[in-house]
Structure to design on (158 residues):
């Protein structure tokens, strides 16, 4: 694996590209994930309210992301109440048996022009042929979009 990384870095240098490793946003996400893992191991048997953590994170988001994240949260909770909200790399996610099934990523998180709703390989029933989407770009939500998201979540739960 180290050889493959070195080869990739060497190719980038040869092509005049500057490789600086992870972006600041990626480093921040990794630090948030490390905090989440520490917090969950410290909680142990004393169950905190992970949904409160998710709602607090949503409240911190800029308005455009906050509106989308809050609505996604409502849709997921209504469509699949058996999923547990949790933070995953500092973003709202929804898990079954501790494994993330779907997640929201704010546009601001990686300075992207749109937020995303993604599904992990834990999601069921979304496979369609040999290629299918696992992440959906979100700029606003219409009633049709909300209905589609509800269907996707219900299908993903199985």
């Amino acid at each position: 694996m180290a050889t493959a990384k070195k080869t990739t870095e060497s190719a980038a240098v040869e092509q005049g590209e500057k490789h600086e490793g992870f972006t600041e946003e990626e480093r921040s996400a990794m630090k948030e994930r490390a905090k989440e893992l520490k917090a969950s191991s410290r909680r142990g048997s004393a169950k905190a309210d992970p949904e409160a953590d998710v709602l607090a994170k949503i409240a911190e988001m800029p308005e455009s992301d906050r509106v989308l994240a809050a609505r996604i949260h409502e849709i997921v909770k209504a469509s699949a109440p058996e999923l547990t909200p949790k933070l995953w790399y500092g973003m709202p996610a929804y898990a079954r048996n501790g494994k993330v099934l779907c997640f929201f990523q704010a546009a601001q998180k990686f300075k992207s022009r749109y937020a995303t709703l993604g599904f992990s390989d834990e999601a069921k029933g979304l496979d369609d042929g040999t290629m299918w989407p696992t992440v959906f770009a979100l700029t606003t939500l219409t009633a049709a979009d909300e209905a589609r998201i509800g269907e996707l979540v219900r299908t993903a739960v199985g």
About this structure: The chain has five helices and five strands.
